[in-house]
Write a structure and sequence with these properties.
The complex is a heterotrimer of chains A (102), B (234) and C (815).
Chain A: H1 2-34, H2 41-60, H3 68-93, E1 96-97
Helix pairs in contact in A: 1-2
Chain B: H1 7-39, H2 46-52, H3 69-97, E1 105-112, E2 115-122, E3 125-130, E4 132-136, E5 140-147, E6 152-156, E7 161-165, E8 169-176, E9 182-188, E10 201-206, H4 208-215, H5 219-232
Parallel strand pairs in B: 1-5, 4-10
Antiparallel strand pairs in B: 1-2, 2-3, 5-8, 6-7, 6-9, 9-10
Chain C: H1 2-19, H2 23-53, H3 62-97, H4 105-123, H5 152-181, H6 194-225, H7 237-272, H8 279-293, H9 308-320, H10 322-336, H11 345-365, H12 370-376, H13 380-410, H14 416-439, H15 456-486, E1 516-519, E2 525-528, H16 530-536, H17 538-543, H18 548-551, H19 570-587, H20 589-611, H21 632-660, H22 662-668, H23 674-677, H24 680-705, H25 709-739, H26 748-779, H27 789-814
Antiparallel strand pairs in C: 1-2
Classes of the chains: A mainly alpha (102), B alpha+beta (234), C mainly alpha (815).
């Protein structure tokens, strides 16, 4: 019982800690963007978001307690999203916009 | 411009290459398959016998027949063939993609529901035709294709190339016209509405010298010339 | 008197089918319904083949022709092919893995009813003004926009596809969890039959292929019915739809093909008298094909003029994908090689399907080359190629599967002579229909008239072939129906096969097996009573370290709720309510309101039973679950999360596509940074609010675990409060934006903002409902050690809601 309480206390501390990191990182990224510090804002906020997503998944969703199959599935889903976005964006970058007259 | 291999020749050579490889591999597999089917046909007749001898004895799960080394050899062979197919065709793919000469004759193509509009630029002025296009023989043509409304695809079987006509985007497609004057049809290859089946255009290939003579004579003479040519094929 | 008795009997019969959740019943429903859809789509094909037999016929032209072509394609691919495979899978997979049912029987019933009603939604289009959807099954934008196709048929199709995607996602979760966590003791992954393996891969494909389609269908509906123009504006438009659609569209081909290949593999093994050759290779081949199939979709876009190097990448992956399939084919042939082949009806049909697969596969390699595709795109070569795969391989393969499992499903044998007649007609039909189309390889697709005399003979032959194929189908139907009623009785294992489904009665009893099937280390299958497994532990039974007396008798499963308690009308009601809601969206506002109210009512009705654990049935401790946890709800939620990742990923792909599209830059100037439009402060506060809600939920869950009921209630109420607060703030934010002129008609950026935050808000709302459900369970004291994982599952759901917001906030508010 004592061990359980100790474990729970640790978990409470851990969760609150993750929450603090999430909130602070959101505030920091806002400041960085508004101050115009980031060289490539889009890449910067995407990286921050991926970092936050990893924290949420690992702790609030308990992903770290799952087996390799669930971990692999989650990562594959994310990877496929990246593939879709990369292919869609690179495919269209070189297109020539053109609107016929009339 | 004479040393430029026409798109249709490139296409045929690739088509023949794939057909040869396909016939060898798929044909070989098929022959082996047919041999297997006949050679290992069981003498017992199928449904009725098994019904009588309904297996009730040992219930056992079998997993697999162990593979022999030959499987890996076959895998390796197909890998090599496929890799060769890709590598040998990349050059042709890139060749078909970009117009091989700067002297290509430009024609603007605009798809609409339901037809094709063609534009020539003659001395800075635009000459338009709808439903037909007159082209010089034995010349590299660069089509600049777009659409006014929905998604179309411009192409003709004689060119062996086609490209999508997408609203808001200019796509280019090059081809070399046949060496002799001829007439054929360009089609729309993407469903674009109820009139899709009627979205064709006559492609009229005329003598090269005659064409450029008219072309160099200015917009009005050129317009009269292509209308006259088109009237012959109505 | 007789009459009332008949009515009562009929009522009971009807009630049984409306309320059943047994996987075998649902399987039969799927098989019968999809066959019905096959007949509808087949008749459409026969109609337009008449039109095409002559160059200038006036039998079926214009709008009518395109309705027939479009609905034929949509039904065959989405409402016949995969559901037919799902029907077989529903019936066979639990039997093959030694489970008593699927993991979530009620969700299985829900999948079925949503599927049936979505199909009806699509077909309803024929009875509206302007007719059914007529823009081709690929629904290319911007032809689908209201400007070019005003008919309500397109709306119905979009909504039908949306509803079907929901059904498929629910089914995917169900099947994956079943195979992951409900295999009989000793049934390791390698021992799973090929059919089950193929269904596993099919489900993995469905999991990530359908979300883009679902998002696409929703965008299509929004595009047509609001001022959102993501698909009709050239900045998104045609190419964005191409990406979303084909990201679904290509895996879909393998979704259709895999179950047939799996069935063929089982059939070939059984009738060659030896197990499948090189099973590890064939499974690896399936795995590679599954992974690669997500990387080949742009070969449908080879002539779009997009970046050459992106297309070259997809050309290479496309040609490479032929290797795993070649591997699978060789494995099938090597299984027969040195075997003893018995030519039963399913075996002959499977053998024919392999022939068609070789031809259809080889002709598809051409289309993997960009250069060759430049001429073949949009022609009958493509039509012939994929019909050889879909009809010649998939349809014949699945029919072979139906013949193969017919004795198991009906308990009777089919008629061999009619079967042979069917095969002869079908093989002639397929080849006569589709081979001539290779000869007319340059004829444009979807033309109802044609002017080239060289195309006349192939088209005539094709039409004759189609009618022969239609005739073969009548023979097939007669055989199936007649044999199911009058055929000779079939024994347990008529083929002498060695997979688990043949080791039980034909047809199997409701609980599938008498006792628990256990696969011992040497592969022999024993049936032991549940008490014995629980007493000695599954491992000991598998290794055979238990006294022989314990094995005797087997005995009935003693698992708590028998199947009687599983009848429920809830899935049917929820499906009907969703159907009314969506039909109302397209047709009538009154229906919409009625449907919405009804849906709320039915969902509460469903949830209320779960608050009191009426259907609660924990998994017995002896199933094989490696490498997954024993906890099916947790696994299910992770599968759902994986699918949600793709849902929002598809929306974000629209965001990035439009943002980088040079056409958009020309049209709307550059995309303005978010902080110029949005109030960053409000966004940041809302971010903190949402994060806090999830934190409180997690703390509540810890408290619940620790037995601190009041703290748990406080945590959950806090989570509800903060998430509702989030929605309230969002509501005022939207109102403010509208008031400032940043409404839907402002720009594509704003439209995407409303779409994304709207979809996210909907998820927050559903999370609130789920949290309320957990709260109700805490208040009712019905949550305990055994179903605590439901609370964990809702936590996992909150996680994905939060993750999505972690992307939404910076991408829309900041940059």
């Amino acid at each position: 019982m004592k061990a359980e309480i100790a474990l729970n206390t640790r978990n409470v501390v851990l969760y609150v800690g993750v929450w603090v990191v999430l909130v602070v990182s959101a505030i920091l990224e806002t400041i960085v963007i508004l101050e115009g510090i980031a060289v490539n804002p889009l890449a910067f906020v995407t990286s921050v978001a991926i970092f936050q997503a990893a924290l949420i998944a690992l702790f609030f969703q308990h992903l770290r307690e799952e087996g390799f199959a669930i971990k692999g599935m989650t990562i594959s889903g994310g990877a496929l999203v990246a593939v879709l976005i990369l292919a869609a964006v690179t495919s269209v970058l070189t297109c020539t916009p053109y609107f016929p007259a009339g | 411009m004479n040393d430029i291999i026409p798109t249709y020749d490139v296409w045929w050579s690739l088509f023949k290459l794939f057909t040869t490889v396909g016939l060898v591999i798929a044909g070989g597999v098929t022959l082996f398959y047919i041999y297997t089917l006949f050679r290992y046909k069981s003498d017992t007749t199928p449904e009725d016998v098994s019904l009588r001898e309904a297996a009730t004895g040992i219930r056992r799960i079998l997993i697999e027949t162990k593979p022999r080394g030959v499987t890996r050899v076959i895998l390796l062979l197909t890998g090599v063939v496929v890799f060769t197919l890709i590598v040998t065709t990349i050059d042709e793919t890139i060749y078909l993609e970009y117009t091989p000469t700067e002297d290509a004759f430009p024609v603007w193509v605009t798809g609409f529901q339901f037809g094709w509009e063609f534009e020539y630029e003659v001395d800075g002025e635009t000459v338009k035709t709808v439903g037909y296009v007159v082209l010089p023989a034995d010349t590299v043509i660069e089509f600049k294709v777009t659409s006014r409304d929905v998604f179309h695809t411009f192409g003709a079987a004689e060119f062996k190339v086609k490209v999508d006509a997408i609203p808001g985007i200019l796509n280019t497609m090059w081809t070399k016209t046949p060496p002799e004057p001829s007439v054929f049809t360009a089609y729309c290859y993407e469903l674009c509405g109820v009139g899709h089946s009627f979205m064709t255009a006559k492609v009229i290939v005329v003598d090269k010298d005659e064409f450029f003579q008219a072309y160099n004579a200015g917009p009005e003479k050129f317009k009269a010339y292509i209308e006259e040519v088109a009237a012959k094929y109505r | 008197m007789v009459n009332t008795q008949f009515l009562r009997g009929f009522g009971r019969w009807l009630l049984h089918w409306l309320t059943t959740t047994n996987h075998k019943d649902i399987g039969l429903l799927y098989l019968v319904t999809s066959t019905g859809f096959l007949i509808v789509a087949g008749i459409l094909a026969l109609l337009f083949r008449i039109q095409l037999a002559r160059p200038e016929d006036q039998f079926l032209v214009g709008n009518e022709y395109y309705q027939a072509v479009t609905v034929h394609g949509l039904i065959m691919l989405l409402w016949f092919a995969s559901p037919f495979a799902l029907g077989l899978a529903n019936y066979i997979v639990p039997l093959q893995i030694g489970a008593r049912d699927l993991a979530f029987p009620r969700l299985n019933a829900l999948s079925y009813w949503l599927y049936l009603l979505s199909g009806i939604l699509l077909i309803m289009g024929f009875f509206t003004e302007g007719g059914a959807v007529n823009v081709g099954w690929t629904l290319y934008a911007p032809l689908t926009s209201k400007e070019f196709t005003p008919s309500v048929g397109v709306d119905l199709a979009a909504l039908a596809i949306f509803l079907l995607s929901v059904s498929i996602t629910v089914g995917t979760i169900n099947f994956l969890v079943t195979v992951a966590a409900m295999r009989a003791p000793g049934m390791s992954w390698m021992r799973l039959p090929m059919f089950t393996w193929s269904i596993v891969f099919t489900m993995i494909l469905m999991l990530w292929a359908f979300p883009p389609l679902m998002v696409g269908a929703a965008l299509l509906w929004l595009d047509r019915n609001t001022s959102i123009e993501v698909l009709s504006n050239p900045a998104g438009g045609a190419l964005l739809w191409d990406h979303l659609f084909w990201f679904f569209g290509h895996p879909e081909v393998y979704i259709l093909l895999f179950p047939a290949l799996g069935a063929i593999a089982d059939i070939v093994a059984t009738f060659s008298g030896r197990p499948i050759y090189a099973k590890k290779y064939i499974i690896t081949a399936f795995l590679i094909a599954t992974a690669l199939s997500y990387l080949v979709w742009m070969h449908h876009m080879f002539v779009t003029g997009t970046n050459l190097y992106t297309r070259l990448f997809f050309s290479i992956t496309t040609i490479f994908i032929s290797i795993p399939f070649e591997m699978a084919t060789m494995s099938l042939i090597f299984t027969m090689y040195k075997g003893t082949i018995r030519f039963t009806v399913p075996m002959i049909l499977a053998a024919a399907a392999i022939f068609h697969f070789i031809l259809g596969g080889a002709t598809g390699v051409y289309l993997g080359s960009i250069a060759i595709d430049k001429n073949l795109r949009g022609t009958y070569w493509v039509v012939a190629h994929f019909h050889y795969i879909l009809v010649g391989t998939m349809l014949l393969g699945l029919m072979a599967g139906l013949y193969y499992w017919f004795p198991k499903i009906t308990g009777r044998m089919y008629n061999r002579r009619l079967g042979i007649l069917h095969i002869i007609l079908a093989v002639i039909g397929v080849n006569l229909t589709f081979f001539p189309q290779f000869i007319a390889y340059e004829m444009p697709r979807r033309y109802f008239t044609y002017d080239n005399p060289a195309w006349l003979l192939p088209n005539e032959l094709s039409t004759i072939g189609a009618y022969i194929f239609g005739l073969s189908f009548i023979v097939f139907l007669v055989n199936m129906i007649w044999s199911a009623i009058r055929g000779p009785k079939a024994p347990e294992n008529p083929w002498g096969a060695w997979t688990l489904e043949w080791f039980t009665k034909s047809p199997p009893p409701p609980e599938n097996f008498e006792g628990v099937p256990v696969v011992k280390n040497d592969g022999t299958v024993v049936f032991v009573s549940e008490e014995v497994v629980e007493k000695y532990g599954a491992e000991k039974v598998v290794s055979g370290e238990i006294p022989a007396t314990a094995l005797r008798g087997g005995g009935h499963a003693s698992n708590g709720n028998g199947h009687k308690h599983h009848y429920t009308i809830d899935p049917f009601l929820v499906a009907i309510a969703s159907f009314i809601l969506l039909a109302g969206l397209a047709l009538n506002k009154v229906l919409l309101v009625v449907g919405a109210a009804f849906l709320v009512f039915t969902l509460i009705r469903w949830a209320a039973k779960d608050v009191y654990n009426k259907f609660f049935e924990p998994l017995p401790p002896y199933h094989e679950t490696w490498p997954f946890s024993r906890d099916k709800i947790r696994t299910a939620l992770w599968v759902l999360v994986a699918s949600e990742v793709m849902v929002f990923g598809s929306i974000f792909s629209a965001y990035f596509f439009i943002r980088f599209n040079p056409v958009g830059k020309v049209l709307t100037e550059a995309w303005p940074p978010g902080y110029l439009i949005h109030d960053v402060g409000v966004g940041l506060i809302n971010t903190v609010v949402l994060f806090t809600g999830t934190l409180l939920y997690s703390l509540g869950y810890i408290a619940l675990r620790a037995g601190l009921r009041n703290a748990a209630i406080a945590g959950f109420i806090g989570a509800v409060f903060f998430n509702v607060l989030f929605l309230v703030i969002k509501y005022f934010e939207w109102g403010e934006l509208f008031a400032q002129g940043y409404g839907l008609d402002h720009s594509l950026a704003m439209q995407l903002y409303y779409i994304t935050t709207g979809a996210h808000g909907l998820h927050v709302f559903m999370g609130v409902l789920m949290t309320l459900y957990i709260l109700a369970k805490v208040f009712a004291n019905t949550i305990n050690e055994r179903n605590m994982n439901e609370a964990l599952a809702v936590g996992i759901y909150w996680g994905i809601v939060e993750i999505v917001w972690a992307f939404v906030f910076p991408l829309f508010y900041l940059v």
